[in-house]
Amino acid sequence: MTAEIVYEHPLNTKIRTYLRIEHLFAQLSGLRQAEAEAQQLSFFSTLFNLLDMLDRNDIKPDLLKDLERCESQLVQWSTHPAVSDQKLQSILQQALRYQTALLRCGKLAVPLKDDKFLAPLRQRFALPGGCCYFDVPQLQYWLKLPAAEQQQQISDWLAQLALTEQTLAFVLNFIRQRGEFMLLQAENGFYQQNAEQYELLRIKYSQDCCSFPTVSGNRYRYAIRFMQLSEQDGRSACSNDISFQLACC
């Protein structure tokens, strides 16, 4: 079976930040069970990159605004006869729970930023080569702890981020479901259209087309150009027509 790839492109700064944070959470999930030392170091590096992202002051307010939009949209949908009231109520309750929890919590990830073990490591990891063991002997010691002890501590750390991860997943899932995939044609590998206040483009294409999409644009207009790898230039524009599916969210 031919593999299909879904490429996502943000059309504003907020969604760009959301996708970067989601990507870091996915990396943490893949690295949390790592046993090789290099992968364990990658776990800490990814964790500190995530904490740097969560230092932004706009993430929590943006999540709260999006939860309010979700709530308003769900209330509107509740009047539609084709919408399952039971499922809608479940999703609405989820949105309200996340909204309440975010309002009650302080600044995102503060316990991890103030953690007595993690905070010094975070400072060293910010420097090129700063995670050498002569700089952080406590890290070398931690890496030699029994796996069960390491995993328990990792679980405790990630539990401090669970609310942010779950809320972000809920909001992004809601945004993604606003758009349905439509089959389109990129003539000579190029397609453009008005954005109509969309926030996210989702492009589904076959790996067999031997190309990949690049997007330029903003909330008003966007252009999709399919490119192919090139040994001479790194990449070059495709000149053939390419079928793809597009969801505007």
From TrEMBL:
One biological process term in Gene Ontology: division septum assembly
The keyword Cell cycle is annotated on this UniProt entry: yes
Main location: cytoplasm
Lineage: superkingdom: Bacteria
Cell cycle in keyword set: yes
GO cellular component: cell division site; cytoplasm
Entry keyword set: Cell cycle, Cell division, Cytoplasm, Septation
Cellular compartment(s): Cytoplasm
Family to which the UniProt record says this protein belongs: Belongs to the ZapD family.
Alphabetized NCBIfam families for the sequence: PRK05287.1-3, PRK05287.1-4
Subunit structure: Interacts with FtsZ.
Function: Cell division factor that enhances FtsZ-ring assembly. Directly interacts with FtsZ and promotes bundling of FtsZ protofilaments, with a reduction in FtsZ GTPase activity.
UniProt protein name: Cell division protein ZapD
UniProt source species: Alishewanella jeotgali KCTC 22429
Lineage of origin: Bacteria, Pseudomonadati, Pseudomonadota, Gammaproteobacteria, Alteromonadales
